[in-house]
Every structure is written in structure tokens, then in C-alpha cells.
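User: Before I run my own analysis I want an independent prediction to cross-check against. Here's the chain; please return only the C-alpha cells and, at the end, one sentence I can use as a sanity check.
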Amino acid sequence: MKKIERVSLVESVAQELRAELSSGNWALGQRIPTEAALMERLGVSRASVREAVRGLVQAGLLATRQGDGTFVVATDPTDVAIRRRLTDASERDVLEVRRGLDVVAAGLAAERRTSDDVAELRRALVKRSEAGEARDQAAFVAADVDFHLGVARASHNDLLIELYASFSRALADSVREDRRLHNFASDGAAEHDALADAIEAGDTIAAVSTALGLLDSTARQPAPEGAVGPEAHGPALDDATEADA
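Assistant: C-alpha cells:
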């Protein structure tokens, strides 16, 4: 047996701050209370608050903006870890992991979906379509992620839902500029509708096949001729909008 270590005051403060993040009391993008407010609320010294906040900044959960305060940039350490790992991962590795998650989620969703699950998928697809027509990139990505997360939720497997949620939130940043994943000219609307149809019908084979087809078509979308690097994913939304005008 090992001796039980006493938790430091700084760690106790950090635990309280993490609890605010995980509970949703502090949302993404929100500025957290000032040091003075935290000192009064927790009954600790400024040094303890400052050190605890510094630790959460280093962990990637908070970010300090000079002159503005400290803001929430992530609420789950798992999301931070996955986001950092995705930064270094190859596109092939990312697609293979997503393929595995999507296939399992689609198959289980077809077996276990409820009418509420199907309604959630349909709502996400409507939002996705509306965002595509409006060329609202942020809304399009959010709706697309919501749809696939809805498929995971329809699996009613808590561990899969948690893993998919963490992966999706981390992946959203990387796909935001990826024209092969989110190309308004070829946005995969029919394939997404087909996946929702297969899940609603309880057709496991069709759901799995469609989920695989979605990812395979994503990988096959060509980059513009002569483009390299990030530009190979196509023009930025603003540039495309200006060109259309």
C-alpha cells in the first residue's frame, strides 16, 4: 500500500474550476470570473487561484487574453488531447479512425434507433441543407457534426457516444477548412439522406454500407488542379462567395 497524499490547495482549486467546466456552468468562449471573484467564492488566496488557472491554461482548457481576461476554450481534457493528436495525425489515419466509429455507430443505430433519434437526424439534415444553401460554413460544419453525432447517439451505447462526441468536437476544427469533407458544390446531401433512411428502416447492412460510402466519397473528392497544401482543399468560403458575386 502507498501512503495517501494530501491534495494541495492549488489542486483543490483546480478541481473546482474543472467542475465548473464539465458541468457546463462555464461554456465555450465564456470569460471566467476574475481572480478577485474566484478568491471570494472559494475562500483562497490570489496565488492559489492564479496557479490553478495557469495549470488549466497549460492543459488547454482555458486561454488568457491580455487585457480581456481568461476564457474557456475547451471543457473536456479528452477533447484537448484528441485535438492535439489530430494536429499531428495524417489524413489517412484520421479517415480510418472516423470510418471505424461511423461504421459501428451506423450499424448499432439501425438496430436501436427510436423515433426521437430519427427526428433528431432529420432536423440536423434540414439545418445542414439550409446552411449549404446560405453558404454558411460554420453552420454547415456544425450541422454535419450534429448529424453524425446523432447517429452515434442513436446507437444507445454510452461509451461509443462519448468517444464519438470527443472525436467530433476535436475534428470539427480540422474539417472547417477541408473542402474535400465539406464542399458546397458536392456536399453529399443524397448520401446523408440515404443513411438516415437506412437507420429509420432498421436496415443495418444498408446503414453500414452508406456510412462507408460517405467516407470513401470524401476521400475521393479531388483537389483543384495545381493546388497544394491547405489550398488543395479548395477555395476558402469567403473567396468562393466573392467569386460567385
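Sanity check: The mean pLDDT is 81.
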